[in-house]
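The methods section describes the discrete structure representation at length, but only in general terms. Since the whole study asks how a given chain folds, the encoding of that fold should be made plain. An entry of this sort, consisting of the sequence and the corresponding backbone structure tokens, reads as follows:

. . .
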Amino acid sequence: MHVYRTHFCSELRSSHVGQTVRLSGWVFRKRDHGNLLFVDLRDHHGVTQVVVDRDSDAFALTESLKLESVIRIEGKVLSRGADKVNLDLPTGEIEVKATSVVLLSEAAELPFPIFGNAEYPEEVRLKNRFLDLRREKLHANIVLRSQVISSLRRRMIDQGFTEFQTPILTASSPEGARDFLVPSRIHHGKFYALPQAPQMFKQLLMVAGFDRYFQIAPCFRDEDARADRSPGEFYQLDFEMSFVTQEDVFAAIEPVLCGVFDEFSKGRVVTRPPFPRIAYKESMLKYGSDKPDLRNPIEISDVTEIFKDGPFAVFAKSIEAGAVVRAIPAPNAGTRPRSFFDQTNQWARDEGFAGLAYINFKGGEGGGIAKNLGPERVAQLVEKMGLGPNDGVFFACDKPGNAAKLAGLARTRVGTELDLIEQNTFKFCWIVDFPMYEWDELEQRVVFSHNPFSMPQGEMEALEQKDPLDILAYQYDIVCNGIELSSGAIRNHKPEIMYKAFEIAGYDRSVVDEKFRGMINAFKYGAPPHGGSAPGVDRIVMLLADEPNIREVILFPMNQKAEDLMMGAPSYVSEKQLRELRIAIVGDPKKSANPGS
């Protein structure tokens, strides 16, 4: 018999009745029934009920055990009897009557109970993440993560991709998010950067002739945390392909994502390939976002012309000054009390906008601003939007960017409040035709809007003859239920086009040669047309686990301040380490770390 266990705590069934077994695990729960002690013994695989008789030599030790202590038990498998079967446990038909109990490791007083799904403060959970990970739901999420990664890897290999590992220590890039910098001990004054993504390396792999690459890649970006974004690091299914068009990339990854979601969806409906393609401009108009949640049936309309030069003076004057009007329908909301509309208007103000005007129809009669707009224009609005006799409609009036943002947020809020969001489904789409450039108000210059290594639609001719803000790129995002899973592009593989693209964004030839020397040099020796994408693993698992926060699917996440409370990172380092790197800390970092000091 093995020194610790003959079976896992999930294995024993009625077929094992009468056998002597040995199990090891954690004391999950204890129940004292006078002459009997019941212990739920838990390991990674499951739970087995153990019973200890008062007459047993093991009773006194078992009675004194603290929850989460690690023990080894030996005993005989007994049938519980039909009236005592626990249908919630795979091992619910049996129990083990212990003849011996050995304490392997005693647990101290717990900072929070392991049993149950009660919520506890983030600081307590993250500081004691090793305990948090014992809890059933979180433990299952991490197992799911492993299974999803295995499935992604298998499906990519089946699609003809080969897995490679790219460097972690690399050069800093002038584009994208903030880098994490690593000082070099050998090369004084120089720094490595942790890769924000394996972007240049995977493109170099295409130049090297490997054709179809992928990896489950760690990426590092010094960004603030969000519910769907972990600060510091994340993982993505990074892939690249040679001699492909945009549609070839879509055709390669769609069955992988659809297959993984089918495998782990637990019966939820998954969009079948080919996924819908929505142009960026159309998405911003109809959904107020480039990450539309297609479970929400509400579509936004541009009704600027209906309000232009009209009797509703507030909107008419704003339109003269360059504003637009976006209308957000609220199906059957006219049956709601007026407070629904007033509260939505107040919500918009609380979000920092001027507010939301509205019309609430009841039996075809319009309230709100209907009288201000006039019956003829209201009729045009009803016809254009296909409004019903008891529908409502909200209006966002602002400069195009702000109007789209408010309309998108309002679409989500109204859809949620009216219970319109389709449940138990994963709705995928591609957002395509992103603008190559955008205007940066802060820097007052043209900048790349998405990925600087993308091929502009129209290639050199477009760069030389079009207004930069009118140029579209072969860039695309894949979105599921309003969550962006990845960005991707058909790459700019021609040096002369790359130099021109960067020149428009304010970088001269020498900057490109210095910052992207490896890639630009490689492209001069024959680069195939290529493209790819990189769906986020953390977000895929978050969706499948139905978790609202990404930290619930990451083993050891940081908190919102990018701190690892368990390991104490980031931390101060010794003077010796700083001297080796020839780095001096300016000022007193301990004081500057304390607000108000």
Q: What stands out?
A: The chain is about 30% helix and 25% strand. The chain has a mean pLDDT of 95.
